[in-house]
Each structure stands twice: as C-alpha cells, then as structure tokens.
Design goal:
By secondary structure, the protein is of the alpha/beta class. It has nine helices and six strands, in the order αααββααβαβαββαα. It is 36% helix and 10% strand. It starts with 30 loop residues before the first helix and ends with a helix.
Amino acid sequence: MSDAANAPYVPPGTGWPDDPAEPGTPVAHDAGQVAALAASAPDLPELVARQSVCRACDRLVAWREKVAVERRRMFADEPYWGRPVPGWGDPEPRIMVVGLAPAAHGGNRTGRIFTGDRSGDWLFASLYRVGLANQPTSVRADDGLRLIGTRMAATVRCAPPDNKPTPAERDTCVPWLAREIDEVAASVRCVVCLGGFAWQSVWPVLKQAGYAVPRPRPKFGHGVEVEIAPSGTAPAELSGTAPITVLGCYHPSQQNTFTGRVTEAMLDTLFTRAKHLADL
C-alpha cells in the first residue's frame, strides 16, 4: 500500500484546495451547537466553513474518517476529504438541488457533493446538457466545474454507513440545510429533491424559511410538482416574492440507472422543467 494510503486524516485548515475553513472556524460537537453555530453564522461563506468542520454525530465522524484513512484501492494514492461536505454552487441560485448525503468514496473523498461517483456522472452530465453547468463532468473540487443559477446541498453532510443516516443524525444536521436555504431563499424559484429522503426533509426546512407548506405532506414521485408561497409570517426578504416549486426527482443512484428506473431523458426533462420554473 502507498504512503498516501497510510497517511492520517487531515484536519481542517491545513492546505486542502479551496478549504472553506480556517483553524479558528468554530466546530459543533452536538446538536445544540449545530443549531447555535448555524443560526449565528454571519454570512453564507462562514456558514459553509462551519458546516465543513462539524463533529456532532459520533457515528458519522468515526465512519467518514475511517473511510478517509483506509480508502478504496482504486483511490489509494489520493487524499480523502474525510469531513462534512458543505453546500456549493451559485451563491444566489434560482434552483436549489437537495440530495441525501455524500458518498463514502465520492463526496467524502473529493470534498464536493456528487463529485467523483456514478450518481454524479449522471447528474452533472444532465445539468450540462440542459445548460445548468459549464462542463459535463465533476471529478474533483478544483476541476473547474461551475453551476449556472444552481446550488447543491445534502440533507446530511457526512457519508453514513450503508448510505443510511439515522433519524437522529438527520435531525442534528437539519439546521445546516435550514440556514443555507434561509440564506438563498430570496433568489430560489425551484427546489429539486433527489430522492424520497430529501423530499421528506425539505418540508420542515422550507416552513422554517418562511413558506406555507401543505398538510398532509405531498407524496414523493418523479416529476411531482408542488407550488408554495411565502406565509404570512415570512421574513421581510421573502415578502412579496413569487411562489417557488418543489420538484421531485428519482435519485440517479447506480441501482436506479442500471435498472432503467432513471434514464438520461428523464433527468434532462426534469431539469429542463426546473430551468423553466426558475426562469433561467
């Protein structure tokens, strides 16, 4: 095994390309600290930095760092990010794409959500074809990819074992997503949920951001659209803004793409619709 594969996990602020955190970035160690640090972040860049160093969920911290040290053989000579994967993309997006969590050898390796795994291959190729990305591939955080009018985030910011976060881990992580959506809500016109987990998670977050959400919660499905408007208690920055549309999308997982449950045409049609809804 190479020396790189035997290297220890690299802590924040030690030279990773485009690392949003610094040695003094505050670190959350429990759910209460996540909520407090998310709420007190002065702006989106600082929020992203705080997301990237969170250590609130012991099981997820242990797993992501174990994967980052042991590594998959095909990536043995590559450094792993091994930390929470923050949101990224346009700071004033018209479209917000929300997924489940980073892949152990994708986002947990590259430091960018959906980057370096098969799901990302399908996702970014579709975004490029419909004009929402400047290139069709996403292989590492410094590869020049730029999203156009679009931002991405995960409901859970750490790679979970077996891709299954617990309800407690999801709830602990939600304030990061809630504050991120708060920061961009004034510009967003469409929220694309990749998979049922993301679909279920965004409704309380959108309610917290100031939107009137339907009850009962709408059922998830590919292409399902739900339009929601700011509530009567929405913050000033949302007052008078147009409604947004929450759009369901089957996750481009290997299981879905290999079986034909998700096709290139399905993704292109959905993101073309998102682009239209967002007036891009």
